[in-house]
Amino acid sequence: MHETIVILQQNLGQALWDTAKMVFISGFIGIIFGTLIGLFLYYFSNPLFSPHPVTNSIVGFVINAIRSLPFLILMVVLIPFAKLVAGDPYTPLGGAVSLSVAAIPFFARLAEGAFAEIDAGVVEAARSTGASFWLIFQEVLFPEALPALIRGIVLTLISLLGYSAMVGTIGAGGIGDLAIQYGYNRYNTGVLVSVIVILIVIVQIVQWCGDQLAEHYTRS
Amino acid sequence: MSQIELQHIDVTFQQKRRTVHAVKDVSLSVEKGEIFGIVGLSGAGKSTLVRTINYLQAPTNGKVLVDGTDLTQASAKTIAAARRKIGFIFQNFNLIGNRTLAQNLAFALTAGGYPEKEQPARITELLALVGLADRQDNYPSQLSGGQKQRVGIARALANDPDILLCDEATSALDVETAEEIIQILKDINQRLHITIVFITHQLEVARSLFDRVAVMEAGCLVEQSATYDLFAAPQSDMGQRLVNRFLDTTLPAKVQAQLIQQTGQLLALRYRGSDSLSPIITQIAKNTGVDINIIQGRVEFIQDRAIGVLAVYLTGSAVAISQAIQAFQQRVDYVEEVSVNA
């Protein structure tokens, strides 16, 4: 028991910070680029804008290709790329690289779905005013898709939290790594249980905040 | 020059393995300031046709001229500019659900290039115009259907359009609310001289709103006339079907059961004007020797002009009855031989 407390005191703060870095960096990149790609897919598939099946299927294929790789394999394949971008792939920053590559197509599909669910009639009404696409995005697509986008963000962050444990085990650190290093490899059940409890609490909080926000932005 | 001219419009949709011909060779023109209606059953191609006017739907063939500009030859910029002068009102209102009424209108104003500083005043003015001045900060979900449609009208009017297109604008509303909306549109048409093109399957709307009306069936324009003439004497099969259902003279089953035991002929008659038909009936009865029994009769007002609707039952010899029918055909606008069902 005493040993567990010492381990947690010495490592938990750093581990949480490393996990936070990985999840937030990759989450941020994933959400920004994912939204853009999702919007792109929506724009080129919606008959109200400029349907372009060829462009759409090429982008769709690339996204599916990345998404079809199990994260463990994607991570290993991306080690040279992480080295190139972050210098050392075995750091939280290095881990964030492969997490970002996984997050972008993941969120792109969620964003595409969020836009596609908007009532086609509302979009048609917006088109009938002669508005530019950019204005329609700002004033119609974004507010109407926002609750679904927020739910997608929650889903993405929670998935990234899970994936970050895998990146951690190859040396990027973080809370998952803490659990494996001490809890599994050194048979310290106390550390393992503590990490599980912390993860459950984090996920509950993220989900709760996301639900509140999504609710706040739903007026229809 | 007409304000809207559609010339030989065809619209086809490519679906998996088949081509859907939604609009077939439709030509029509709408004059400035009139209320032009298009009626037909759902699936007749009305919605598709009306969307070619603001080019939400590009025609496969044909020309769309709005104020002399050929939209089929126009750049995206010209089309966007044309749209700003064409308001559109939808059956399901299509307001932005997560934006307040003020924001909904601000969007339309910004799209039309209205200066941002002057928008608040314009929004107040528009909402006052449709009687929702105190609801600026409400969200659409807080409004009733009729109120939503008023906002739809305010949005369509935001940029002082020359033309208003209405796609089944009253079909999702109850009768009373629909009448309110019709009154608002009539008022707008008279005060602002905005041309209105209104499509609907409801003939109640046609009766009180349209100056002229076209009938569509299976993608084709089958009839075009002044509204009063359509109701008094529809020419096409579809026109007759729609009008007959509206000016219904179907008898209650009990009355039909009594008539079926007799060997006469039931006639549905329509005639222009509110005068009584009894002199004509008396005369025809005298000349042909048939007995004419008036089963029911009423006067309908179409665009404030009367149409008499009558069901009469003729009894007598077969020859006399056919003579009487011929006589009616010469003297009234519409005669239909109705068969009696058990």
TrEMBL record, chain A:
Q: Which CDD domains match?
A: TM_PBP2
* PROSITE patterns cross-referenced by the UniProt entry: ABC_TM1
The question of whether Membrane is a record keyword is answered with yes
Ranges for domain ABC transmembrane type-1: 16-208
Print the keywords alphabetically. Answer: Cell membrane, Membrane, Transmembrane, Transmembrane helix, Transport
Q: Where in the cell is it found?
A: Cell membrane
Presence of the UniProt keyword Transmembrane helix in the record: yes
Residue ranges annotated as transmembrane are: 22-45, 57-78, 90-108, 148-175, 187-206
Topology relative to the lipid bilayer, per the entry, is: Multi-pass membrane protein
Query: PANTHER family per the record?
Result: ABC TRANSPORTER PERMEASE (PTHR30450), D-METHIONINE TRANSPORT SYSTEM PERMEASE PROTEIN METI-RELATED (PTHR30450:SF1)
Q: Which family does it belong to?
A: Belongs to the binding-protein-dependent transport system permease family.
Q: What is this protein called?
A: Methionine ABC transporter permease
Q: Which organism is it from?
A: Lactiplantibacillus daowaiensis
UniProtKB/TrEMBL annotation, chain B:
Q: A Gene Ontology MF term for this entry?
A: ATP binding
Which keywords are on file for this protein?
Amino-acid transport, ATP-binding, Cell membrane, Membrane, Nucleotide-binding, Translocase, Transport
Record-linked Pfam families = ABC_tran, NIL
Q: Domain named ABC transporter: which ranges?
A: 6-243
Name by which UniProt lists this protein: Methionine ABC transporter ATP-binding protein
Recorded source organism is Lactiplantibacillus daowaiensis
Biological classification of the source: Bacteria, Bacillati, Bacillota, Bacilli, Lactobacillales
